[in-house]
Amino acid sequence: HKDRAAEVIRRAGYQCEECGAKDVRLYADHVKEIRDGGAPLDPANGCARCARCHGRKTADERKKRFS
């Protein structure tokens, strides 16, 4: 898990792939949520996101799931 996260963040150049924020905590977010069939440990299913972008994407996915 940690190796996958490190690879995703390194590949993104240590910045948020959504808004471009640098020098912030980054999360190796799953592009396709695990509960929606996404590969849990595949770096190709990862996207580096800052906390704000990660939270927004997670909320949007939950809305889709429950609507």
Structural class: alpha+beta
First CA to last CA: what distance? 30 Å
Largest sheet: 2 strands, antiparallel
Number of strands: 2
Instruction: Compute the number of helices.
Output: 2
Q: What is the quaternary state of this protein?
A: single chain
Bulk shape? flat
Mean pLDDT: 93
Compose a concise summary of this entry.
Helices cover about 40% and strands about 15% of the residues. The protein has a two-stranded antiparallel ribbon with strand order 1-2.
Structure description:
The protein is an alpha+beta fold. It has helices spanning 2-11, 51-66, and strands spanning 26-30, 46-50. The protein has a two-stranded antiparallel sheet. The radius of gyration is 12 Å and the shape is flat.
Give the topology, please:
Elements lengths: L1 H10 L14 E5 L15 E5 H16 L1
Antiparallel strand pairs: 1-2
Keywords, please?
single chain, two-stranded antiparallel ribbon, 67 residues, 2 strands, alpha+beta
